[in-house]
C-alpha cells in the first residue's frame, strides 16, 4: 500500500556511524580489484574519513539526492526501488555506506546503473555536491568527461523551470484531480515557442495493450514509475487539444544554479524507478522531490505524508514563494466557448451552419459580414472541428474534411485574426479553497435538535466555491458526518460516503456531453417504524443539463436514476428501484450560490415503496477558506434542516 | 486507513467504467519519418483504445513508454537519451503538429508556426514574411504536407529560398 513512514525528528547515533565506517572500509577492499585500482586509494581513504568526520551522510542534501526517508523508529530507507541506483549493496537503507561506496566508485570509469555510465556521470548531482563539499583534487580524483550528460544538459539550454498543471478532466475518473509535470524553459524562449521546450514527466510505465487490471495496478503501486522528457508540444496536444483541459503554467523563481542542480538530479533519475502509487507516490509527489533537489533547504515532501493532490502541491509552491509567473493555456473547448461568447446572434448562427456544412461560407449573406468577422467565425469553426476531429480516428474524418474547407477559405482572407482575451474555464487553481473540509453545524431533524461535525478528505461539491475548480463538477472522496441528537444519549455516524460524484455538462448546439452522477455510502433514514436507522445505498444517474443567464448563471439538469438501498428498516432488508431527478444551480452573486433539486424514485424490488425527496441548499462564501451553508432535506415524513460553518484546509 | 478506503472506492469506479465499454484495440499505422515517430501521433487516440486503457493511462499518467523519452536511456527510435535527434527535430515537429500547423498557416500566425519557423532557423525579424508566405501558398504546402510532413518541410525550405526577404535563411542552410 505504500504508506510512507512518518518522518521523525533527526537523531544521531554514534554507534551507527561507527558501523558505517566499517562497512565503508569493507566496500573499499571489496572493490580494490576493479575500481580503486584505477585511482588513488590513499586519497579515497582520506575522502571517506573527511566525509565521515563532516557527517555528510547525515546532511539533508544527501538524503534528498538518495530519496531517503527516516524510518518510524530508527534508520533510513530510500523510496527509490532500482538496485542500480545504489553503489553500496545496503545503500537503500544505509546512507553512510552508500556515501562511502559512491566515493569509491568515483575513482572508477566502470559503467554503473541502468544508464551504463561511469559513476561520476550516472550520479552527476552526487558527484558535484561531494566535489564541492570535499573540494576534490582533480589530479588525485580525475574528473570524467561525461559527454552524454553534457550533451543532454546543453541541448535544453535551460534558463528556468515551470510547473505545468493540466486541470482536472471529469470524464476520466483517474485524471479528475489533474496532473503535474515540469517544463524546462530554454534561453530565448518566447510565449510563441515555449511549446518546443522539453518537459520532465513522472509516469508509470505501462505496457501498450493494457486492460482492466491496469487501473488497479496503478492505484496499488504495481507499476514502475519513471521519469521522461516528453516535448511540451506533445503534452499540449494531449491535454489541451484532445482531453480539453485548461493548462496552468507556474514558472518557478529559480536561480541558474538551482536549475542546474535540478537537471543534474533529473539525469540521475534515468537510473531510478519508484513503485507508482496513484494517491501518494504519484506524479505530484515526485515532481516535488526534483524541486527539493534543486533547493534542499525547502521541505516540500514532508507536507504530504498520506496523499498528494496535484493542486495542493501547486498551492504549496506558490505559498512558499517559489513561483515567479503564472499563465494559463486554455483548452480547445474553452477557446470555442470564449470566441462564441464574443459573437453576436447572427455570427453564432453562421458558426452553427458552417460547422454543419462549410458550403455556407459561399453564401452572399455570410460574405456580407465584415472580413474581420468572417475570419473570426471561420477560425472558431476550425477550432471546433479540430476539437471534434483530433485523435478521433475514422469517426473524426468528416470533421477533418470540413476543417480543410474552412481553413482553405480562411487562408484567402488577408486579415490578422481578432485577438480576444480568453478567460480560462478553470480559474487559477492555487487560489481556490483548500481540498479538505471540516464543518460545524446544528439543526433539527423533525422534532429532534442536533449538533453535527462533518469532514471531507477531498475535494469539491456543487455548492463549494468554484474558483480554481472545474465548474459544475463534484468529486467528494471520504466524507462523513457525526451527529449528536439532544434526546439521544450518544452521538451517531449520520452519513458516510467514500465516493460521491456529479458531472453536469451544459448542452447546446456545439457541446453535447451527457451529465451523470454516482454516489455510494451510508446515511440515516426514518422509514416506517424505524427512526434514525442506518441505510447503505448505491445511486447512479445519467441525463443532460442546460445553462441560462437570467440572474447570474443557472444550470438546470434532469437525470434518470437507479438506486439500491439496504437497511433493516425495509421489508426483506432491501429495495431496488429507479426514477428521475431534476435540479437547478444558480450563482446569485460571486459569493452566493443556491442549489435545489427534486427526486422521485419508485422501488419495485424488495420493499415495494416510493420516495419523494427534495433539497434546497445555499452557500455564502465568507473568505476563500470559510463558507456558511443552510441546507434543507426532505424525504417522506422526514425533514432535516442544517446550518453549517465550513472551513477548508 | 483513510487512504485504503479511498483507494478501494476509486478502484471500484475504474471497474465500473471499464466494464461499460470493451472494444477491440487496433494498431496505429506509422506514418512519420524514418525513425518511427508516427507511432507518437495521436491519430486514433480516444478510439483505438478501450475506456479501461484510457483510465489506466491517466492513473499512471503514462502515455508513452519510457523508451522513447526516458532520461539517460541511450539511443532508441528518434531519440538519444530521451531527446530528439537534431536532424529529425523539424520533421518530427511538423509531423506531430500538422493539424495545428495547418490552422496557423491558414490564419497567417500562431505558436505552432512560429515554433516551426524557429526550428527551421528563420530569424525572428523574418518570421512575419515567412508567415505571410505560408498563408499565401497555403494550398500548395498543405498538399505537400498531406503526402508527407517531411515533404512539407522541404517545400517550406525551398519556398523560403526563392522568397527575396527569406532567401538569406536558405543560403545559411
Shape of chain B: elongated
Query: In terms of structural class, how would the helical and strand content of chain B be classed?
Result: mainly alpha
Count of spatially separate domains of chain A: 4
Determine the strand fraction of chain A and express it as a percent band: 25-35%
Low-confidence stretches of chain A: 1-37
Name of the top-level CATH class of the largest domain in chain A: Mainly Beta
Tell me the distance between the termini of chain B: 63 Å
Number of strands of chain B: 3
- Overall strand count of chain A: 23
Q: What percent strand of chain B?
A: under 5%
Rg of chain B is: 21 Å
Neighbour order of strands in the largest sheet of chain B? 1-2-3
Q: H/E order of the elements of chain B? A: HHHHEEEHHHHHHH
What structural category do the secondary elements of chain A indicate?
Answer: alpha+beta
Principal-axes geometry of chain A comes out as: globular
As a percent range, the share of helical residues of chain B equals 55-70%
Domains of chain B (count): 2
Amino acid at each position: 500500500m505504500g504508506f510512507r513512514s512518518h518522518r521523525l525528528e533527526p537523531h544521531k547515533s554514534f554507534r551507527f556511524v561507527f558501523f558505517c565506517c566499517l562497512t565503508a572500509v569493507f566496500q573499499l577492499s571489496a572493490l580494490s580489484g576493479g575500481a580503486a585500482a584505477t585511482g588513488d586509494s590513499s586519497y579515497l581513504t582520506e575522502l571517506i574519513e573527511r566525509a565521515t568526520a563532516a557527517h555528510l551522510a547525515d546532511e539533508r542534501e544527501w538524503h534528498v539526492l538518495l530519496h531517503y526517508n527516516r524510518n518510524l523508529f530508527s534508520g533510513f530507507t530510500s523510496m527509490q526501488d532500482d538496485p542500480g541506483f545504489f553503489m553500496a549493496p545496503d545503500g537503500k537503507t544505509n546512507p553512510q555506506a552508500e556515501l562511502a561506496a559512491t566515493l569509491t566508485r568515483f575513482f572508477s570509469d566502470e559503467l554503473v546503473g541502468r544508464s551504463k555510465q561511469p559513476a561520476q556521470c550516472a550520479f552527476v548531482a552526487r558527484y558535484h555536491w561531494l566535489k564541492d563539499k570535499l573540494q576534490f583534487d582533480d589530479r588525485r580524483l580525475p574528473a570524467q568527461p561525461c559527454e552524454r550528460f553534457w550533451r543532454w544538459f546543453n541541448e535544453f539550454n535551460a534558463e528556468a523551470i515551470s510547473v505545468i498543471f493540466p486541470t482536472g478532466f471529469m470524464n476520466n475518473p483517474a485524471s479528475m484531480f489533474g496532473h503535474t509535470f515540469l517544463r524546462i524553459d530554454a534561453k530565448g524562449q518566447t510565449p510563441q515557442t515555449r511549446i518546443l521546450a522539453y518537459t520532465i514527466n513522472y509516469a508509470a510505465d505501462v505496457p501498450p495493450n493494457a486492460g482492466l487490471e491496469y487501473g488497479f495496478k496503478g492505484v496499488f503501486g504495481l507499476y514502475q514509475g519513471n521519469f521522461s522528457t516528453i516535448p511540451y508540444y506533445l503534452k499540449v496536444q494531449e491535454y489541451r487539444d484532445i482531453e480539453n483541459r485548461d493548462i496552468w503554467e507556474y514558472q518557478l523563481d529559480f536561480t541558474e544554479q538551482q536549475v542546474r542542480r535540478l537537471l543534474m538530479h533529473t539525469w540521475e533519475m534515468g537510473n531510478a524507478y519508484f513503485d507508482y502509487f496513484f494517491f501518494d507516490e504519484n506524479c505530484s509527489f515526485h515532481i516535488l522531490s526534483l524541486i527539493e533537489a534543486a533547493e534542499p533547504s525547502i521541505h516540500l515532501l514532508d507536507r504530504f505524508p498520506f496523499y498528494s493532490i496535484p493542486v495542493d502541491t501547486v498551492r504549496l509552491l506558490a505559498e512558499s514563494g517559489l513561483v515567479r509567473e503564472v499563465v494559463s493555456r486554455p483548452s480547445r473547448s474553452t477557446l470555442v466557448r470564449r470566441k462564441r461568447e464574443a459573437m453576436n446572434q447572427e455570427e453564432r448562427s453562421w458558426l452553427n451552419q458552417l460547422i454543419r456544412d462549410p458550403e455556407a461560407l459561399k453564401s452572399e449573406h455570410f460574405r456580407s459580414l465584415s472580413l474581420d468577422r468572417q475570419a473570426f467565425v471561420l477560425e472558431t469553426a476550425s477550432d471546433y472541428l479540430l476539437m471534434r476531429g483530433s485523435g478521433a480516428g475514422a469517426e473524426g474524418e468528416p470533421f477533418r474534411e470540413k476543417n480543410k474547407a474552412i481553413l482553405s477559405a480562411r487562408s484567402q482572407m488577408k486579415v490578422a485574426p481578432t485577438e480576444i482575451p480568453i478567460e480560462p474555464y478553470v480559474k487559477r487553481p492555487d487560489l481556490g479553497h483548500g481540498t479538505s473540509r471540516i464543518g460545524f453545524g446544528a439543526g433539527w431533524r423533525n422534532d429532534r435538535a442536533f449538533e453535527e461535525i462533518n469532514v471531507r478528505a477531498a475535494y469539491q461539491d456543487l455548492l463549494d466555491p468554484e474558483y480554481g475548480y472545474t465548474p459544475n463538477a463534484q468529486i467528494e472522496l471520504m466524507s462523513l458526518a457525526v451527529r449528536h441528537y439532544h434526546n439521544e444519549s450518544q452521538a451517531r455516524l449520520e452519513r458516510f460516503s467514500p465516493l460521491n460524484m456529479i458531472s453536469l455538462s451544459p448542452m447546446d448546439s456545439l457541446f453535447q456531453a451527457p451529465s451523470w452522477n454516482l454516489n455510494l455510502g451510508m446515511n440515516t433514514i426514518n422509514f416506517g417504524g424505524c427512526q434514525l436507522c442506518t441505510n447503505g445505498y448505491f445511486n447512479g444517474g445519467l441525463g443532460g443539463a442546460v445553462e441560462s443567464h437570467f440572474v447570474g448563471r443557472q444550470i438546470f439538469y434532469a437525470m434518470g436514476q437507479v438506486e439500491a438501498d439496504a437497511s433493516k428498516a425495509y421489508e426483506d432488508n432491501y429495495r431496488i428501484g429507479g426514477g428521475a431527478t431534476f435540479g437547478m444551480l444558480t450563482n446569485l452573486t460571486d459569493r452566493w450560490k443556491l442549489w435545489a433539486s427534486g427526486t422521485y424514485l419508485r422501488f419495485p424490488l424488495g420493499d415495494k415503496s416510493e420516495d419523494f425527496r427534495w433539497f434546497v441548499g445555499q452557500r455564502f462564501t465568507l473568505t476563500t477558506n470559510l463558507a456558511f451553508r443552510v441546507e434543507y432535506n426532505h424525504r417522506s415524513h422526514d425533514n432535516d434542516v442544517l446550518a453549517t460553518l465550513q472551513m477548508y484546509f | 486507513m483513510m487512504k485504503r478506503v479511498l483507494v478501494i472506492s476509486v478502484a471500484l469506479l475504474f471497474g465500473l467504467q471499464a466494464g461499460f465499454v470493451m472494444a477491440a484495440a487496433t494498431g496505429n499505422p506509422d506514418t512519420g519519418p524514418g525513425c518511427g515517430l508516427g507511432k507518437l501521433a495521436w491519430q486514433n487516440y480516444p478510439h483505438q483504445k478501450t475506456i479501461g486503457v484510457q483510465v489506466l493511462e491517466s492513473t499512471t499518467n503514462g502515455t508513452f513508454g519510457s523508451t522513447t523519452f526516458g532520461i539517460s536511456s541511450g539511443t532508441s527510435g528518434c531519440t538519444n537519451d530521451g531527446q530528439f535527434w537534431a536532424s529529425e527535430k523539424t520533421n518530427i515537429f511538423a509531423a506531430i503538429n500538422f493539424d495545428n500547423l495547418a490552422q496557423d498557416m491558414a490564419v497567417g500566425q500562431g505558436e505552432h508556426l512560429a515554433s516551426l519557423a524557429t526550428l527551421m532557423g528563420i530569424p525572428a525579424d523574418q518570421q512575419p514574411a515567412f508567415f505571410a508566405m505560408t498563408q499565401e501558398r497555403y494550398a500548395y504546402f498543405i498538399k505537400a504536407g498531406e503526402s508527407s510532413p517531411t515533404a512539407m518541410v522541404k517545400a517550406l525550405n525551398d519556398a523560403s529560398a526563392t522568397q527575396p526577404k527569406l532567401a538569406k535563411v536558405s543560403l545559411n542552410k
